[in-house]
What does this fold into?
Amino acid sequence: MKNTRKLNIKNMIYQHIVNNSKEYILVTLIFIVGIFSGVMFINNAQETQISEITTYINKFVDTLKNTEQLNDIQLLKSTVFGNLVIALMLWFFGTTVIRNTSSFWSYTI
It folds into this structure.
């Protein structure tokens, strides 16, 4: 029974990957381009930028080490709130910039 179930799950995963191969290839390419551009950025960064990046990463790791216990609910709330604010700002500024300007120009002539 367990062997059949494992084979069924493996087949489902395989079929999912086969059916969505274009998406997997696209995400993999985007990931590789991101890694490549990050490496290029670090290689071309000036000494002050490298020291700032190193300091930022070290402070982040030290904060994680010194935290006794993470409050999952508080972390979730702050993350959702921060992302919601960014999403609302993008929506607001996107709707104020994009408009049909052809009707505006036809009335001014």
In short: The mean pLDDT is 85. The CA atoms of residues 60 and 79 lie 16 Å apart. The first helix runs from residue 2 to 19. DSSP finds five helices and no strands in the chain.
